[in-house]
Amino acid sequence: MPESKRTPGGVAGGLAGLVGLSAVAGILVTAAVTPAIAVSGYAASSAISVFDNMPSYLEIDKLMLPTEILAKNGAGEYYTLAQFYDQNRIPVTSEEVAPVVYDALLSSEDKNFYSHGGIDLLGTIGAVVSNIRGNDTRGGSSITQQYVKNVLQQSCERQAKTQDEVEDCFLQTTVSSGAQGIERKLQEMRYAIQLEKQYSKNDILIGYLNIAHFGGTVYGIGAAAQYYFGVSAKDLTIAQAAAIAGMVQEPNTYRLDRPDGTYFDKNGVGHNSAADGYADTKDRQEYVLWRMYKDGKITKAEYDEAIAAPIEPHITPRGSGCQQAGGAEFFCDYVRTIITDDPAFGQTADDRAAALRRGGLKVYTTLDVDLQQAALNAMSIMPPTDPQLDLGTSGVQVEAGTGRVLSMVQNRLYSQDPDVLAADGNYTAVNYNVREQNGGGIGHPAGSTYKVFSLINWLEQGHSVNEQLNGRTGTKRIETCDGATQTVRAANSPGSIGNFQNNPGYNGSVYRFTVDSLNSGFLAMAEQISVCSTNQVAMKMGVMRGDGGPLDDLNVAYDVLGSANVAPLDMAEAYAAIAAGGILCQPKAIDRVTDADGVDLPLPQTTCTRVISEQVAATAAYTLQGVMNGTGVDARTHDGVPIFGKTGIHEYEHTWMDGGSSKVATVVWVGNVSGHATLDDYWVNDYQLSRVRSTIWPDMQRAANAKYGGDEFPSPDRDLTRQVYADLPSVIGMSIEQATQTLSDAGFEVSVGGEVDGVEAAGTIIAQEPGAGRVVPGTTVVIRPSNGVGIAVPSVSGTPSAAESELRSAGFGRVERQCTQDAGATGPGVVTGTDPGAGAVVNRNAMITVHYQRDSCP
Predict the structure, then answer these.
(1) Most exposed among 33, 187, 240, 298, judged by the fewest C-beta atoms under 10 Å?
(2) Tell me: the pLDDT tens digits for 57-68?
(3) Around Cβ 671, how many Cβ atoms within 10 Å?
(4) For the segment 764-795, what is each residue's pLDDT rounded down to a tens digit?
(5) Contact, 666 vs 659, CB < 8 A?
(6) What is the per-residue burial (b if ≥16 Cβ within 10 Å, else e) of 418-449?
């Protein structure tokens, strides 16, 4: 703010082009006393015309007031989280001001206030004469004129965008030298006369006390009393009232919040300081007290007592900014960014900034202080910083079905002060929960919590969670976008995509892949649903990159495993949509906004839209409930409220837990703010960093469950949980390699069994189990190749000798006979068959038994 009362350098050329002294006096007399008084002289008549042609109507804008951000406490009552202002002002009514304040102000500034018509004639003439002589003047203006000046100055400042513009407003409305000063005085008088016709004296007086400057950013008697003496305007003493009333003449000289001095001499010695007893302010106070005594407003005893007492300020700062928000600083800052960004608060950035710092808004937020405190308690196990790594942790909760943001916490402390940020690593200005445009960074890799979008994409394309796929590690061909493919290797080796704890994968269902968070299983899903479509599902559900960019601009295979940087609030929004049966509600941090008069204003536009079907949402929730008995088992709440969730870890550098109940979604992130430390390698406060999510998340979710409850999730859709069958092709006659490729391409896992006797060439598949037909997808097929040494047993008849001879001729070296007695069979006997039977393919070294009958067996 401008120091003291400054005037532009130099005198604006005296009265050239304006009016003479007699005319000015004539104008003053005519305007201030009565139009009936005649003023002689041509100059006076001309001046009167000039005066009469000046604007007479002064629009009194609303006061520039602090904007308050409010939250509801446990008793359901709103309290102030934080406030923002350019002018610290606490408006008061006439009844809320101690009578001694009025006495002090009127005695020292305008003792005839209640008897004149808006102008202190003699004082104004004296001021004009001083201007004509080229001298600066202070005073000479009535309270009404001073009110006019303040109204004009504030109207100008309301449009100011820089401090230089604010100071220019001061100069424009207070210049008192030369022609400009005279013209300003005349216009001031013109407005003052009209104001006295429009408003009562009491209205003008309290209007002035509420708008007047009292040094620094302090405006109005309410804020001055609170700031300088720690009391309300109603409780000011005589001495305090006189000190504050004296400030209006030189606000930045007489202010009491600079113990080192409000100005300094050439030797650097501070004046009006604590050391000299605030001598300048004391002198001005004594003048005010003298005027009060002379006017009979105080007794001699009261005067003597006030004179004898030293000025003892009790500075009571009224903070501005989110650092006041007491544990909800980052939520407050999120709300601040909404006000400065959303068109609901103004069409331009300047309009919105003015609404925040000058509009007197009351912003009623969605914050649930009970959940916020529980989240802070849960977060307390994490230090703001750690010497081992640049550690970040955050948690956020969103109400399902409304999008209301209920809590928002992180491990670092909040500050927007560059000096604090540079000096102390415990502080940050970055909100880890939100996108960059709302004060966040670029987000964090979501890891396997992003797999929920593959799951939903799978379901939306009509697949069942009980469909079986080959989820073993190996080469996967992933459709990225527009038919393009990428080949990735899912293996537990460098340069490949592996599974947690080197799991080799398995043939299994999508349900099981989700429960186990199997990377190779989700890559197998991506062979049937493109990465593009999965990224687009995520965006449809409210998730973008942390920098606001689209997720489907790259479409690499790794995306399905959560490689993109996203904001936790976006993920909470998506999981809340599943909980709400497929209804996505954009994050909502503000429930209500009123202007300075208490009139409701339009809210920032947020919508709730169906983005997935009820059937898909129910089946996804069913699958995610299974996770809580799998990888999410450590995060269970054990309070009887149904919950679902999904774990996530990205390259051991970031770890997540996302999920919730049917009422509230909770997301927790732990990871590297910068750098690539492996979380498995670090312990903080006895918690392994890769697993601490499972301590923070259930504490936050339990608090939500206790307050909001939670219903059973709907049953999954029967079609989306159906058992799916696939056609198993026959590979008989193929080579091992051909058979394996054919079966793998069809989605089956292959096991090569032992060789079997066959007449086919060695390595030719002659058996498969199960055989061709309709089977469960992903079934393991056992194939068996020929050993190349099999012989088909010929069909033999006649005598045993002839049969044996024929078998030996076919290549069998081991033949035996088996006789069965039959009285009707005479002679050498009759062959009835062989074992193995005719047509059987057996090893040439196998024993072939010839069965025959004769009347008497040897």
Answers:
(1) 33
(2) 588 888 999 999
(3) 27
(4) 998 999 999 888 777 889 999 998 888 899 99
(5) yes
(6) eebeeeeeebbbbbbbbbbebbbbebbbbbbb
